[in-house]
Amino acid sequence: DNISRPLPGTSRWEIRKKSALLYRLAFSLLRRQLPSERLHLSAGGETFARTMSEILRYPVAVFPLPVQHELQSVPRSRPPSGGVPLIVVLGMMRPQKGAELVGPVVRGILQRNTRCRFLLQAHPPCWEQVWREEIGPAGAERVLIHRGEMSQEQYQAWLQSADLVLMPYSPAHYLLQTSGVFSEAMAAGKPCVVPGGTWLAAMALRHGGGATIFEHHTTASIIDATLQSLDNLHELTASVAKFSALWRETMGMQAVV
């Protein structure tokens, strides 16, 4: 994820030349040690594959992400919601994934929608205190924060319990990047909020929906997209349900193993 970088003040991106040259040098050294027939490179997205082919001067194929969607069958229980939608933020958090926007976004949503609740994964745990301070008293009863890693069973249970998966990722950083969390959400039939101009948005549009797209990596834009998702939650859930089975068959480990 250090190949691309955002251009200041825009949603566009450029190649990070030093990183690209380092990858090219490392791969050229590898090619000296291994014959071409033993080197098969792949990426999860078309833009990523095309960019890496140019950087490495070597073919990079597009393959599904190595995600085990069959783990959706693990036993799980859904916490009682009382009909209140549950929004989750899952996975390891870092600046490229919008960690610094989570607190203000959640606070803004809670102020404008009184019928939703949140599960946030603070991984690494240092984000818990930051988010609690940013969210403030409004989150006392409506925001649960899980500290650190989750077991596979915990992760799957919360994903299955979710009504909406919030992904406040940086569009510039995720133009090339794929996302395991997004792939698992699509396989589980869970609507998402995702950045525009990225692999995530492109895949949702290609499959016919299941996501609300925000165009700017700002608190206001992400809040608006999330509130729009809550207003259209029934339709979004129905749209992703139409292709979740196909996603499990074609976009995970089972497609290539």
Largest sheet: 6 strands, parallel
Strand content: 5-15%
Give me the Rg, rounded: 19 Å
Class from helix and strand fractions: alpha/beta
- Total helical segments: 10
**Helix and strand string, N-terminal first?**
EEHEHEEHEHEHEHEHEHHH
Uncertain segments: 72-80
**Total count of strands:** 10
**Mean model confidence by pLDDT:** 89
Alpha-carbon distance between the two ends: 25 Å
Strand line-up in the sheet with most strands: 7-6-5-8-9-10
Q: Give the overall form.
A: globular
Instruction: Report the helical percentage.
Output: 40-55%
Give the SSE layout.
Layout: E1 4-6, E2 13-15, H1 17-33, E3 41-43, H2 46-56, E4 60-62, E5 86-89, H3 99-112, E6 117-122, H4 126-135, E7 143-147, H5 152-161, E8 164-166, H6 180-187, E9 192-195, H7 199-207, E10 211-214, H8 219-231, H9 233-241, H10 244-250
Parallel strand pairs: 3-4, 5-6, 5-8, 6-7, 8-9, 9-10
Antiparallel strand pairs: 1-2
Helix pairs in contact: 3-4, 3-8
Could you describe the 3D structure shown?
By secondary structure, this protein is α/β, with parallel strands linked by helices. The chain has helices at residues 17-33, 46-56, 99-112, 126-135, 152-161, 180-187, 199-207, 219-231, 233-241, 244-250, and strands spanning 4-6, 13-15, 41-43, 60-62, 86-89, 117-122, 143-147, 164-166, 192-195, 211-214. Helix 7 (199-207) links the parallel strand 9 and strand 10. The longest helix has 17 residues, at 17-33. The protein is globular.
Features:
about 40% helix; six-stranded parallel beta sheet; alpha/beta
